């Protein structure tokens, strides 16, 4: 309960949980929502178009194994449950919550869509309106839209009457404290874990290594030249007026580099076409919950321990393993709190960066 109540990002995105025990590094499959096409019904045809329901799976690697272990003294063990929780468990759980939220916030690197100006803190409702417009253009569902901003943006926006008078929301303590209210159709929150993206490369140009024909629409790996440094994963590009994000880099040499981008080129680009690289920025995020997934699974109880020494506790889809042991090397008692999860960007088209 303490862990769930301290999460911000994790309480705003899609979560998948099952009680199946898995190991660190295992891959699990989660379901994507079914998709349908709306057809016109012609009354005199007496027929409908029957669609096959297909729910595609997406694989998620369970590669985040977070652990906090600490020594406890005989005096600590004489504390009441409340005192033990406040003095030891709460600080440990807050550290876990910060780590989980920071990992989720780092998924911004998968998002090519953006609004705002790099290096300029959002300070007006027009910035939120622009993020709303971008989600509208991307056809994100209207309900349950979220916006998570950094402390600088919060400080600027808190002076606005519309923010001061907004109705606050949130079902947990952290969400209530972080909430700025519902602004222009987005439930808005502050998180200290909103990351700053440091851009690796700079403006460059398309350079098709195999000739001068450029690249056709649908291409996902391009060669560029004119860089002063290697690009970084998460760098934002503009090519032919369209937004892209760098998802992988390879073979940097003397200003030339291969870039894997998302989405695939929406239109053909000619050789020597300019590629604009967006400057370093704070990656505030506007999104629908199904843009990202937090997948949690319980860790198995270690063998050889008594029942009183280990417990796996699930609360609202977050499972924590608690182990109490004696370390014969240090001659001290220890408590360990660890958990396992994986993260995945499900639909980049349901999110955009609000640059700051």
Q: What's the helix and strand layout?
A:
Elements: H1 2-5, E1 14-17, E2 27-31, E3 57-61, E4 64-72, H2 81-105, E5 114-116, H3 125-137, E6 146-149, H4 151-157, H5 161-164, H6 173-178, E7 179-183, E8 186-190, E9 196-197, E10 204-206, E11 221-225, E12 236-239, E13 242-253, E14 256-262, E15 274-277, E16 281-287, E17 292-297, E18 310-315, E19 318-327, E20 332-345, E21 351-355
Architecture per CATH nomenclature, i.e. the level-2 architecture of the largest domain? Alpha-Beta Complex
Radius of gyration: 24 Å
Let me know the largest β-sheet: 7 strands, mixed
Helix content: 10-25%
Overall spatial form: globular
Average pLDDT, all residues = 87
CATH class of the largest domain: Alpha Beta
Strand content: 35-45%
Distance between the termini: 33 Å
Content-based structural category: alpha+beta
Name the poorly predicted regions: none
Number of helices: 6
Q: What do we call the CATH topology of the largest domain?
A: phage-related protein like fold
* Helix-strand sequence: HEEEEHEHEHHHEEEEEEEEEEEEEEE
How many domains would you count in the coordinates? 2
Total strands: the figure is 21
